[in-house]
Amino acid sequence: MTKHVTFTAAFLLISVAACAEAEAGALAESAAFDAPVSAAQSVPDILVYKTPSCGCCNGWIEHLRAAGFSVEDRNLRDLMSIKRDAGVPVGLSSCHTALVGGYVVEGHVPIEQVKRMLSEQPDIAGIAVPGMPIGSPGMEGPNAKPYQVISFDESGNVAVYAEIDPR
Length: 167
Ligand SMILES: [Cu+2]
Hints:
Blueprint: H1 2-17, H2 24-28, E1 46-50, H3 55-66, E2 71-75, H4 80-86, E3 97-100, E4 103-107, H5 111-120, E5 126-129, E6 147-152, E7 158-164
Parallel strand pairs: 1-2, 4-5
Antiparallel strand pairs: 1-3, 3-4, 5-6, 6-7
């Protein structure tokens, strides 16, 4: 168990280090806090859990909003319990975890793939773009490379859901 948690933490530190505005120190703290939620808030189309300093997470949120989705973001210092509760396989982890329509969306998944999942209603728990590939929404930059969207289910089965070439 200790080994498992250590691996996850190390992976997240590496991932988030690539995100310009991330502060590694925040992740090293294990104390999560709940962001206050106003009673007046309506139910969001997409709920995004992210760390407070994650700039590329904000980039992905803008990508969702540009596609017409309403997004609520919650800032937590430690997303590990969120990812575990959502059933995100450790190897598919990224910098933010989102919930939409009963599905989990991990990382910089293009909105087209989220919409496809919502309309096709596949028998999976969610989809992920592991790590933070350059060229994915919110991770724009030179030297974009092809990357995959991976589906996962509650039994830990994973499969390629889409091949994306942002070039
Ligand atoms: Cu990111």
